[in-house]
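Issue 218. Parser rejects a valid record. Input:
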Amino acid sequence: MTLSVVPCHVRAQWDPAVNSQQGHPMQLWGWGAAKAAHNWSVDRVLVKDDAGELVGSAQILLRKLPFPFRSLAYLARGPQAAPGREIEVLDAVAHHVAAVHKSVALSIEPDWAETAAPAESLPAAGWRRSESTILIPRTLILDLNRSEDELLAAMSKKTRQYIRKSGREALEYRAVTAAELPGCLAVYRETARRANFGIHADGYYQDIFNNLGEGSPVYAAFDGDTVVSFLWLAASDATAFELYGGMTDAGSNLRANFSLKWLAIREMKARGIGRYDFNGLLNDGVSKFKFGFADHEDMLAGTWDKGLSPLFPLFAKALPLARKAVRHARGLLKR
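Output the parser choked on:
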């Protein structure tokens, strides 16, 4: 059966299509709109069968590269696809990118388990694993279909203790309004300075908040009117995904991040969302904190590239300038 690729230019059509196939929040219209405001271009396509039925969809982010490579195409936690048809959908999307955008390669980081059938089929379908990772595949994904008691039981004893302890402090835990967002960004800047990592200008985060709308919930712990800890998510109908977070020294002393994360988990569960992704695990203190909330870890498929041009071998292996350019392009997708 032949699949057709149809561009989608209407948000009211796009987001329902993504959600109908349990898509990731990074595939929602608002995420692409935010990226399009910051030096990326976006192509959203619906993949249909001969009968016109939706088989899949993909929000393609495109970044210009130096001549002669034209561009790099990227799928963040995409595509969406009917079960068993993931590779067909990817092939259709790759053909579309090659024909329409002339990109040197399509890079994907699908929201598939490493051991799932579609992930295991990627090498045979012409995809090659890449070490240029944007979204860390090793992560924790909570099953929010479990009861709150079951979720608590899976936590470490110390995490449960800190949730109870921080919940007794004179702090208010709740969703953040647009007017309160600058307070969270001030905490984020403070956290970045303390931990020595780079962040975007405030306008970038404002664009994410504005473009995703209800798909970008932010929660904070307040000491009076002062934000001492915050946690920022992206959420589709199926998956909640942690984006950003930070806290002040006062918030750290009060262990505010424990009750705050538990609030976010319960809020996402109340929305009817089934998966809560902690967005990556490293061997650091933040990951140690995350581990306290689950008795397992998850491994996703990772990063895969497909060459779409005869220049791909040169691009991938033999031209340091191009490799530096793609690392820079990928870096712009990070926090």
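Fixed in the parser; the record now loads. The chain has a mean pLDDT of 94.
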